[in-house]
Amino acid sequence: QVRLVESGGGLVQAGDSLRLSCAASGRTFGNYAMGWFRQAPGKEREFVAAVSRSGGSTYYADSVKGRFTISRDNAKNTVPLQMNSLKPEDTAVYYCAADLLSTAQTMALKGEYDYWGQGTQVTVSS
């Protein structure tokens, strides 16, 4: 069992930066690949970024590549998401998720993830 709690959301202007964090409970954190997803009003939840169990591999949606950076600290059980050059289209609720059986081919698939946090709101004004 893994419990995930997101933090760091807020209201910013276009071009600003935000750093989200996901805090995970449980001693098996290192067994899970971790992902960030987002959901805007009226839209489906979409993949943003993911990081492998060791932190050695990262994956990004094309829409955030070069602007967002995902990492993990297995000693602290945290998964930060650094978001730079934010755009109004980045406005959404951001969710952290944990995936026990992930592969490189499944990292972006929300249906593969086993545990989800409650989400944190990010609003980017123009």
Structure description:
The protein has 126 residues and is mostly beta strands. It is built from no helices and eleven strands. It has strands spanning 4-7, 10-13, 18-24, 33-39, 46-51, 58-60, 68-70, 78-83, 92-99, 115-116, 120-125. Strands 2, 4, 5, 6, 9, 10 and 11 form a seven-stranded mixed beta sheet that branches. Strands 1-3-8-7 form a four-stranded antiparallel beta sheet, with no helix packed on it. Strand 7 (68-70) and strand 8 form a beta hairpin. The chain is globular and about 40 Å long. The model has no long low-confidence stretch (mean pLDDT 95).
Derived from helix and strand composition plus strand pairing, the structural class reads: mainly beta
Strand content: 35-45%
Contiguous helical run count? 0
Mean pLDDT over the residues? 95
Largest beta-sheet characterization: 7 strands, mixed
* Rg from Cα: 13 Å
Which quaternary structure do these chains form?
Answer: single chain
**In percent, how helical is the residue content?**
under 10%
Euclidean distance between termini CA atoms: 40 Å
Q: Which geometry do the CA atoms define?
A: globular
Low-confidence stretches: none
Number of strands: 11
Helix/strand order: EEEEEEEEEEE
